[in-house]
Design a protein that fits this description.
355 residues; mainly beta; Jelly Rolls; 8-stranded antiparallel sheet; 7-stranded antiparallel sheet; 9% helix; 35% strand
Length: 355
């Protein structure tokens, strides 16, 4: 009899938990509730998962702590190691963040290059890393249309250690391995949002063999790995590319857009990017990795990326810049997005979770 009662209690508990999961999934990622995870926080520890419903492993870290974690619970960003500016407006009374606390609000008016109409740039340095995994949660308003161009907004930008200046900052413009982790919108209604990735190394462009674009991929390691100096055999050459005069040099870039994946609007969505720099022997090998996910679904994968050559074989990432920027003519309309729970790791979180 007692055994029967225990079995009935267990079955009842299972049905209750199953009902909670169904109820949670039917609501979706609304802005009034936590995102599948109940969190505990205090001033001395990072958020830890107390209960996790469903299959999503949002705030669960299976390896070392992130090298950057920002929850946007207040605007004391300098106390957490950020410098060179500010993020924007912490939104304490509007949309609730995915972990139940505050989140960051970026609101553009028509013609604004930056939310609020003034420059928003903030940076954080970290120990050089050849692997980077970036996770962020984003919420795009239903009216979101992006930049009105097949590029922008810039949001999350990685810089390498050899781009570092004495003041700990990095110059804008031409880079050595400027890496953009972002999203872009289609140019016509319904303005679908796509995960986006881009590389730019204009300061590496070799002009000794003629005006770019000129293919030097099989000629020298002293070159750009992007369009201005060609594409190495076996290298992923991207879904788009650019080479044009810029300042006193050339802008050399490649782009990757996950054309088959749409980032939903009017709900919280998890966006992730993973980078592993390529190996270098006598020459750079096209064996680097780049992956993008939308809500845990793999949106794009390449295992034949070329990030560096023998001229910069020890190059590694050392700074994250967050700067929501829509260039050219600025935002095409009034539009708003929110971000929350930004984390950066120097290892592949997905592989750690799988193990």
């Amino acid at each position: 009899m007692y055994r029967t009662i225990r079995i009935l209690l267990i079955l009842a508990l299972i049905f209750i938990m199953y009902g909670l999961v169904l109820e949670d999934s039917s609501r979706g990622m609304t802005c009034e509730k936590d995102f599948h995870a109940q969190m505990v926080q205090n001033n001395s520890v990072e958020p830890q998962v107390v209960m996790l419903l469903g299959q999503d492993q949002d705030f669960l870290d299976a390896g070392p702590d992130p090298i950057i974690r920002e929850s946007f619970d207040d605007d004391d960003f300098a106390a957490r190691g950020w410098f060179d500016g500010n993020f924007g407006v912490v939104d304490p009374e509007g949309r609730k963040g995915v972990s139940g606390g505050n989140c960051l609000k970026w609101e553009w008016q028509k013609g604004d290059a930056y939310p609020g109409g003034s420059i928003l740039v903030v940076r954080k340095n970290f120990q050089p890393a050849e692997e980077i995994f970036l996770r962020v949660y984003a919420y795009f308003s239903e009216a979101w249309e992006g930049s009105g161009f097949p590029f922008h907004p810039h949001t999350f930008v990685l810089y390498p250690d050899d781009h570092l200046q004495a003041d700990g900052n990095y110059p804008g413009g031409l880079g050595l391995l400027t890496t953009y982790l972002s999203f872009r919108s289609e140019l016509s209604s319904p303005f679908e949002i796509r995960p986006h990735f881009a590389l730019q190394d204009g300061r590496r462009v070799n002009t000794a063999h003629g005006n770019p674009p000129v293919d030097l991929a099989a000629t020298t390691e002293d070159r750009s790995v992007n369009y201005c100096n060609g594409c190495l055999e076996g290298q992923d050459c991207g879904t788009g590319q650019d080479c044009f005069p810029f300042g006193d040099g050339y802008y050399s870039a490649r782009y990757w857009t996950a054309e088959d994946f749409e980032i939903p609007k009017n709900q919280w969505v998890k966006l992730e990017w993973y980078i592993r720099l390529n190996t270098v022997d006598e020459a750079g090998n096209p064996d680097g990795i780049m992956r993008m996910w939308v809500d845990n679904d793999l949106a794009y994968e390449s295992t034949s990326m070329l990030y560096r050559t023998a001229q910069n074989q020890t190059q590694a990432y050392a700074q994250l810049k967050v700067s929501p920027y829509i260039g050219s003519t600025g935002s095409p309309k009034n539009q708003t997005m929110w971000i929350d729970e930004l984390s950066v790791y120097d290892y592949n979180v997905k592989e750690s979770l799988a193990q």
